[in-house]
Design goal:
This protein is α/β, with parallel strands linked by helices and 284 residues long. Helices cover 38% and strands 18% of the residues. Strand 1, helix 1 and strand 2 form a beta-alpha-beta unit.
Length: 284
């Protein structure tokens, strides 16, 4: 069985580590260090660069995962590889999107049937990319699955280093909540979908406990035996435009569908479980 990952980055590495022991051969594209990808068990291809080899892999793929963000000109994968993907025999095609497509809901709940109303440019680009992928899938009867990911954390992407070195910032914006997902849970959701494809499926990939960001940092500090970072008011805090944009949207994201349709039981159903696992892994 062969999986091709277009944009084999952080999250895809966890999927590769899960599938390779099951007999899968994984090929991934990178623009950076091929050695880092190879360490996960995937065979690296440079793209752009090795387009011919990549098309050959797509022509014999059983599954394809797209994990490359759109840019101002649209989706780069669709621009360059739509014909190769349309002709692929793959029985599963996954596209990694974001819960940012729902926009700001003032802390209210959303699910996969909620209207898409992005309030950031990044979210708008994702809505357009999702629509373009659905158009390609409908035109060529492709087994497309869309996964809307919440904020990703995991090994190497936890808050402990900043908490310990004093650079963590506990920004307080009243009513602000985020949904999150551990990278290991992203991998098990994708693996479950690959094992039981439901073409046309759309899935929110998040944990059970949307929470204010300051609560997560306070809990991380507590686990480290440290006082919580000082509180800063969002309105007056010095932040880059990019950092401030993440606070433009507040919502709680439902994840019932990954449980009901895919039978997923989250490894880390809340940030407390996820942070405890990260700390234990560090100690180990």
């Amino acid at each position: 069985m062969r999986l091709v990952v277009l944009g084999h980055g952080y999250s895809a590495g966890f999927l590769t580590r899960r599938l390779v022991p099951q007999g899968w051969q994984v090929t991934g594209t990178t623009r950076g260090d091929p050695a880092a990808m190879a360490a996960t068990g995937a065979a690296p291809l440079l793209w752009p660069g090795e387009g011919g080899l990549l098309r050959a892999e797509l022509a014999r793929a059983d599954a394809i995962l797209v994990s490359i963000a759109p840019d101002e000109a649209g989706d780069p994968v669709l621009r360059d590889l739509s014909e190769a993907i349309a002709a692929s025999p793959a029985r599963w095609l996954g596209y990694l999107s974001t819960t940012g497509v729902y926009g700001d809901r003032g802390g209210d709940w959303v699910d996969e049937d909620s209207d898409l109303a992005p309030s950031t440019r990044r979210g708008q680009q994702r809505v357009a990319a999702e629509a373009a992928w659905r158009e390609l899938a409908q035109a060529h009867d492709l087994p497309l699955h869309v996964f809307r990911l919440a904020g990703i954390y995991g090994p190497g992407r936890g808050p402990f280093e900043k908490v310990r070195n004093g650079t963590a910032r506990r920004i307080i914006k009243p009513g602000q909540v985020f949904s999150r997902i551990h990278a290991e849970d992203i991998a098990q959701v994708l693996a479950a979908s690959i094992a039981q494809p439901r073409p046309g499926g759309i899935y929110n990939v998040c944990d059970d406990d949307p929470a204010p960001p300051q609560d997560v940092l306070a809990h991380a500090a507590q686990l480290c035996g440290l006082p919580p970072p000082p509180a800063e008011d969002f309105a007056s805090a010095e932040m880059t435009p990019m950092a401030r944009s993440f606070y433009a949207e507040s919502k709680r994201v439902r994840n019932d569908r990954i449980k009901d349709e895919l039978g997923v039981r989250l490894l880390h159903p809340d940030y407390r479980s996820g942070l405890a696992a990260l700390l234990a892994a560090e100690a180990g």
